[in-house]
Amino acid sequence: MTNQRQSLRRSKGNRIVAGVCGGLAEFFGISSFWFRLAFFIALIPGGVPGILIYLIMMVVMPNE
User: Fold this and answer.
1) Which of 5, 18, 45, 51 has the greatest number of C-beta atoms within 10 Å?
2) How many domains would you assign to the chain?
């Protein structure tokens, strides 16, 4: 039995904007709803924290 961990990549199938939340969900094995909710909550105090983190992850994470 091998425990191969999937690499962190943006999702092609589970995406709304760029696949960042879908890729995080596949990597951690939880629903993408929770990552989308976290980014939405990060948008509330003015938008900059959520958008900045999302854009950085969009650039850093390779596409699937």
Assistant:
1) 18
2) 1
